[in-house]
């Protein structure tokens, strides 16, 4: 973490780090204090000195452990990044720039171990310990909140990073077949009887949740009531033959295997498809959702791996103009104000841009839409009827 750039976050980190060290020291003292006191009272001066030396050695080990979590003494250090499926193209450009910068400044080589997949599933793997991520860059804040609630990330994660932890943004795009034979122009058109939709599963992927919220908000943020919204999304999911596990699989089905009439995906994903000569017409709806992608250091894992310093430096680097320009090249909407101004003209304007907060915030969204028996389960049941 850069102290001069983020003094408030640096202060929070220092307090947390001191508290952790105090905890470690207290644990050691608790184990040995009673034993040493008893021995002290029954031994002569030479043996007393020996036990004091032994205690001092133990405390030195504790202090070393405290400082080791952000030590950069090794010639190489491994950093584990777990992210959602469509960010790989951006990280392939950003990571080498960071590695070069860190090598130059610290004379240490950073080796990245990377994993990409559906955001919900990735978060579940981190929680289960199947992937010991040092850093997570996920599709939606709810996935980071889940990891936090599991005790792996401290509750201050949004305070410790700029923009409340949001490092990249996008909006929803509706992709159609050449010539748009179904005449899809708005969200409402997707509910037509003859439309076949390719959509992702909200239970395994971030794009699946963003799609669900975009469908719902296209009604409620445009003057419609919740009964109308429920009827609409039920019809939409009836038009879905199967739900894919993540955004990449949905794109492959639509672009590579030519399945479906309509695909809902990230705006940046459409541009990536265009770069591979799979250019198809798409619409950026005037009523749209701000798709906010968070990043966070996984506190428990960086302390275990002794990678906190380099992990926090990489997170800071993701907000730099250099990294944000790489996100922008792939049509992510940057969060760095300088880069936002530089590239503003390359994005289509959004008339009504709503957020997760407009739908009640992530706690309400989880309860209302995603838990067992909530709206999505009801929609699935009705779609099969």
UniProtKB/TrEMBL annotation:
Q: Where are the transmembrane segments?
A: 49-70
The record's Pfam families line, in alphabetical order, gives: SBP_bac_11
Q: Which InterPro entries match?
A: Thiosulph/SO4-bd
Sorted UniProt keywords: Membrane, Periplasm, Signal, Transmembrane, Transmembrane helix, Transport
Q: Cell division among the record's keywords?
A: no
**What does UniProt give as GO cellular component?**
periplasmic space
Q: What is the lineage of its organism?
A: Bacteria, Bacillati, Cyanobacteriota, Cyanophyceae, Nostocales
The similarity comment for this entry is: Belongs to the prokaryotic sulfate-binding protein family.
Q: Which GO terms describe its biological process?
A: sulfate transmembrane transport
Q: What is its main location?
A: periplasm
Q: What is the name of this protein?
A: Sulfate ABC transporter periplasmic sulfate-binding protein
Q: Which GO terms describe its molecular function?
A: molecular carrier activity
Per UniProt, subcellular location reads as: Periplasm
